[in-house]
């Protein structure tokens, strides 16, 4: 994998992947940012949820289940001292589907968290536990 | 820290931070994505560079050095088997400054990588080494 990160102005950086996709990063306002994008740790947090989200979509689609809507609420705690790594993370999966069962959703999340999700594995191997739960509503 | 990730369509998710900043994530094209944003692991990779980049800007500014331009080239290797974690990462810092010395730039990167950069610390604690070098040009 390759990417390049380039300073635009102030603390605003734009990342460009080797396939030409862009993302903006900025410092938080209390560290000199001007709201041009999420902070790097906000982005890392969301990467974990996005990585797992793609697994869930993929697994449920392979089982021919319909996902009407899906969202993940992510919360994390960080260490008080530098480097301020994640110390705990929780993912709350919210799925609306007309045909997926609770057991299918639970199993999809479990497969993602225990086997497939690369970003979750990086965080867990760093020593930060990831907990999760879910709610499933019928479409 | 809090954020919410929401499915838009297909494999395209939008993350929204608790301070209202958005970022798009998508699966790679060979996994059903349509190029609406970087993949989660591309974003995690860039988070590491952005986290360190903000440190460097902050440290050099505290030393009253001018940064004319700055970019980081990031490369990473990943495991062949699931979960496909990062196995090595390299950051090449490119800085143009009229007044910063090579030693000041080297020291700024070292402080970031060894003490301050939260995202780099997460990756290193996961077992993935991060190497780095830099080039400094006069403005």
Description:
The structure is a homodimer of 139-residue chains. Chain A is α+β, with helices and mostly antiparallel strands and 139 residues long. Chain A folds into two domains: 1-37, N-terminal domain of TfIIb (Single Sheet); 40-137, 2-Layer Sandwich (GMP Synthetase, Chain A, domain 3), CATH 3.30.300. Helices cover 33% and strands 34% of the residues of chain A. A three-stranded antiparallel beta sheet of chain A has the order 1-2-3, with no helix packed on it. A three-stranded mixed beta sheet of chain A has the order 4-5-6, covered by helices on one side. The longest helix of chain A is centred in the middle third of the chain and has 23 residues, at 40-62. The radius of gyration of chain A is 17 Å and the shape is globular. The mean pLDDT of chain A is 97.
Return residue spans of chain A where pLDDT drops below 50 for at least 5 consecutive residues: none
Given helix and strand content, the structural type of chain A is alpha+beta
* Count of discrete domains of chain A: 2
Largest sheet of chain A: 3 strands, antiparallel
Instruction: Give the second-level CATH assignment, the architecture of the largest domain in chain A.
Output: 2-Layer Sandwich
Task: Report strand order across the widest sheet of chain A.
Answer: 1-2-3
Radius of gyration of chain A from the CA trace?
A: 17 Å
End-to-end distance of chain A, in Å? 38 Å
Helix content of chain A: 25-40%
Strand elements of chain A, count: 6
Oligomer: homodimer
The amount of beta strand of chain A, in percent, is 25-35%
* Large-scale geometry of chain A: globular
The CATH class label of the largest domain in chain A is Alpha Beta
Order of helices and strands of chain A: EEEHEEHHE
Mean pLDDT of chain A: 97
User: Can you identify the CATH superfamily of the largest domain in chain A?
Assistant: K homology (KH) domain
Largest interface: A-B, 72 and 72 residues
Question: What would the CATH topology of the largest domain in chain A be?
Answer: GMP Synthetase, Chain A, domain 3
Number of helical stretches of at least 4 residues of chain A: 3
């Amino acid at each position: 994998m390759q990417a390049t990160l380039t300073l635009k102005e102030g603390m605003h950086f734009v990342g460009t992947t080797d396939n030409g996709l862009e993302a903006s990063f900025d410092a938080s306002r209390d560290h000199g940012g001007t709201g041009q994008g999420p902070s790097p740790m906000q982005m890392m947090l969301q990467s974990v949820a996005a990585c797992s989200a793609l697994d869930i979509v993929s697994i449920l689609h392979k089982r021919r289940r319909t996902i009407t809507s899906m969202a993940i609420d992510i919360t994390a705690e960080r260490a008080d001292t530098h480097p301020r790594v994640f110390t705990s993370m929780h993912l709350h999966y919210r799925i609306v589907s007309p045909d997926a069962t609770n057991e299918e959703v639970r199993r999809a999340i479990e497969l993602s968290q225990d086997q497939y999700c690369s970003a979750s594995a990086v965080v867990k191997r760093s020593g930060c536990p990831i907990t999760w739960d879910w709610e499933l509503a019928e479409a």
